[in-house]
Sequence to fold (591 residues):
Amino acid sequence: MRTSAKEKGSSGQIYSRGNRIVRWILSVVYICYTMITFFVLGVTFVDSFKSKSELAVNLFSLPQTWVATSYATLFGKGNIFQSFSNSLMITTVGTALCIFLASMTAYGISRYSFRGKGALTAYFLVGMMVPIQVTVLPLFLIMQKLHILNTRIGMILLYGSQISFSMYVFAKFFRTIPVALEESARLDGASDFTTFIRIILPICKPVIFTMCLITAVGCWNDFYMPMVLLSKKAKQTLTLMIYTYTSQFIRNMDVCFAAVVVTLTPVIILYCIFSRQMVEGITGGSVKG
Amino acid sequence: MNKKRKKRRNYLLFISPGFIMYSIFIIVPIIYVVYLSFFHWNGLTEKTFAGLSNFQLLFTDQKIAPDFWHAVGNNLKYLLCIWFIVTPLQFLTAYFFYIKIPAYKYIKFMVFMPYVISSTIVSFFATMIFNPNIGILNRILKMAGLPQGSWFGDIHQAFKLFILIVLWQSAGSGMMIFYSNLLDIPRDVLEACSIDGATEWQKFWRILVPLSLPSCASTIIMSTIWALSVFDLPYILVGSTGGVRGVLDFVNLVFYRYTFGSVLNAQSNYGFGAAISTVMLFVIAVVTAIQNKVLSRFEYEN
Fold:
């Protein structure tokens, strides 16, 4: 059953022999390409268990003795814990805020009719078209004025306000929920807000999860905003910490490898478990094979 | 009556928190940056109105303008690479997933993976591999007895390598969007096509490309905007000056140097930085508008 499905093409027809060979060749080419990723990740992992002197001699060999001195040095420096908790806090709270605001706004826009609705929708989509690099200078000044420059709360508010994309996805999803559901809740005397929290949000748990995942990965990996807006060392995130180490690669080689492994591991594990949901997230929440 | 009005007003409850936050952090900065571009200001003393002199400095100054135009050229070169190399490859790969080449699920999983890797780490990987002294690639070449390169130190290779790294890191997301658009194409059209005896080649060009192009339009526009605002990778890879002879110098790096790096007369001039941002904003708006027009014409024809 499975093998016959495998040989069928996009519209269900059986491929000719020549076609099948071409498909296999393509597949082999792509599989070779994916080896690059394995290679890079593998070398990094193995190298993180070499001693510093061995690293300096050769990056491309198995360690003569497997040692964890790189990790000891990294954790000995202490600021990894600070950076990790900064990253974790900014990512989780920022994501939660962003998704909450985005879902609420999307609900307001897709469930009520009022004047200027089209203009408001367009207003909220501007954020997708204007890259942050263009507005970073005024952001810097505004955050300075509000005394949230170089603070975690500032970054959280900033990430929390990047609602355009999630709002768009939520609005698309809300349109598929039948209105009857809310009406029955309303007849039972629930306020609009209660209806939203108790009825609507539970329905869109999968969408919420998907959007959280995508937003969180974006926050966790973001480099530009923390670099400009979180220049204090005590407030720096993991990506910034890695940047400071890698910018002096030769001097900190051992720490670099360990820090990269520590930062990358949670994301890669998350990806292995939830790759499907992540893909759904970036394709705008469409649920497809 | 009262109740009805109350109900109608409820949308404000839902929209205003998001609206306020979004306005402060997204919309106000856009207006503010345009406003600032007309002033001289170092951030400490009073702003002084400068008219268009910031723009004049940017476009005509003997020291700054060549830097700027060189960066604009690089941005265009990068944009062309995105349009004519990266996007077609993304679409082709999506097509291969669509026709389910063997092991396509595994390939899909691996090709998308670098999307979750931060650009600082991607640059670290690049250093690990391409560093001319200790990098892995030169090591392997040496073992094989082949000539070694200086990679990012070589002005003829740096840009190509950069495109390869971009391809590896960020092609996955666009691929997935194209793939999901292909899956949206109604099956019966393709079946009718097969019955009429169309070859795979004909199906690809006559059905799949034209029918998925409209939904791919927004992705193409988004990758254009990202291409125009590229910053992270070149900055981390080769530093804020854009590498050897500015081979990887982009407008955003110029912006960063002059705004936060105080290259301009050894003091920061926020007005001048804002002028660069304003130009970018303008370019993005124009390019997006043109693309929208062109891509929507395709939609109309179909």
Q: What stands out?
A: The mean pLDDT of chain B is 86. Strands of chain B lie at 39-40, 48-49.
